[in-house]
Structures are given as structure tokens and as C-alpha cells.
């Protein structure tokens, strides 16, 4: 079953869609919850005169239902007589989708090494640590699609596994030809070694590490890609079946 990509950081939740209604128009219970740190992403109609609000708090998504008189609110999931969850679709539309857009934008703005055809129709972001053996396995497993020009990998270089990982990641980002440096390191032909880099290069690794933490990631490689308009996330080395799904089809 596909792994739903969700934000685990309130810092990124702030980047999601702005509230659909102005704060001055919120009923008193919603204003009270907002004062306690709730972030409202939008409202939606609900049965029996209720008004629903799709919201999040410290990265946790939730729905709030306000009574017709606007004076009372219930936080939780609304279920109809057939057992249908009436909260799921609004959360998907108003919270998750905008947050995923924000994540994709953060990935685009991160510091990565391109691997493959710049015009490839499919793009995957993968968090790569130079000391990660599974990152090398993933690099090798992706070769048929990358070399055929069907997939472009964007290696977001992080230093999280060993003490010298940040310096190695910086050396790779600061290389004269980062793509070649990544290639040679991945096949074991020319292992990257730590070396002094300008502050701006070291800062790239620091920011990538921050993004890794803000997304609640814990493994390398972790790969994020788009499927049917939504984000999917794969932690670690994917199975053969999952690899084919990630790449958009069987190996050419």
C-alpha cells in the first residue's frame, strides 16, 4: 500500500495554504483555538448546520466542527450513519495537498546533485549520505531508468550517519563536477574524502540536514516522488516491486 507522505513539522505546516476565510470572520470557538496555536487551513460545509474547519496543530491534522449558532465547537472526526468518515476528504484537500506542495517546493529549493537527463519526464528527490551503503545500492538499481533518460534523480546531500558525513557531503557538492564525483563515489572508483569547503557549501549541507529533520526523516536513502498528483515517500532501499513503481514502469 502506498506510503502517505505527511508533514511532521509545524514549521513546514506554516508554509501550507493560507486560511480560506479571514480571521475576523471566525466564530469565537475557532478564534479561541487559534489563540492556543491551532492553524486553520480552510472551512467546508458539514451536515445539520455544522461548519467544518480543516486545521493542524504542531504538524498534527484535525477537523473542528462548529455548531450553527457559532458558539460551540467539537474537535474530532465526523462519522455519518453509514460509517463514512466525513473528515478525511476535507483534510486531504485543504491540509495534506497544500502541505505536499510546500514540501515539493522545499525539495526543489534544497541543494542537490543532478543525476541523469535534465529533461527526463520523471524526477525523484533522494536524501543521500556519502557514507550510506544503501544509497549506493539505490544509485546502482536506478541506472537502467536514469541511463535511458526516463528518470532524473536529484540527490539531496546530507551528512547524518557518521562524523565525517557532513564534510564528505560538502566535498561532493563543492566538486568541480558534482555529478561525476557522485558517480565515481557510487561505483567505488574514487571515494570522496573530506576536504575544506567554502562556508556557503558547508551551509548547503547544514540546510539539507535541517530539511531532513523538519520532514521527520530517519533513514537514507529516503526518496520522495510524485504519483497521481500526490507525494509518495520511500524510506531506505526499496523492494524490486516498489522500485518499478517509483520509476514509473519496468526497466527499459
UniProtKB/TrEMBL annotation:
Specify the Thioredoxin-like fold domain's residue ranges.
Answer: 120-246
- In the UniProt record, the signal sequence range is 1-23
UniProt subcellular location: Periplasm
Listed Gene3D superfamilies: Disulphide bond isomerase, DsbC/G, N-terminal (3.10.450.70), Glutaredoxin (3.40.30.10)
CC per GO annotation: periplasmic space
State the InterPro entries in the record. Answer: DiS-bond_Isoase_DsbC/G, DiS-bond_isomerase_DsbC/G_N_sf, Thiol:disulfide_interchange, Thioredoxin-like_fold, Thioredoxin-like_sf
UniProt keywords (A-Z) are: Periplasm, Redox-active center, Signal
- Role: Required for disulfide bond formation in some periplasmic proteins. Acts by transferring its disulfide bond to other proteins and is reduced in the process.
* PANTHER family in UniProt: THIOL:DISULFIDE INTERCHANGE PROTEIN DSBC-RELATED, THIOL:DISULFIDE INTERCHANGE PROTEIN DSBG
Q: Which family does it belong to?
A: Belongs to the thioredoxin family. DsbC subfamily.
Q: Specify the protein name.
A: Thiol:disulfide interchange protein
The UniProt gene name for this protein comes to dsbG
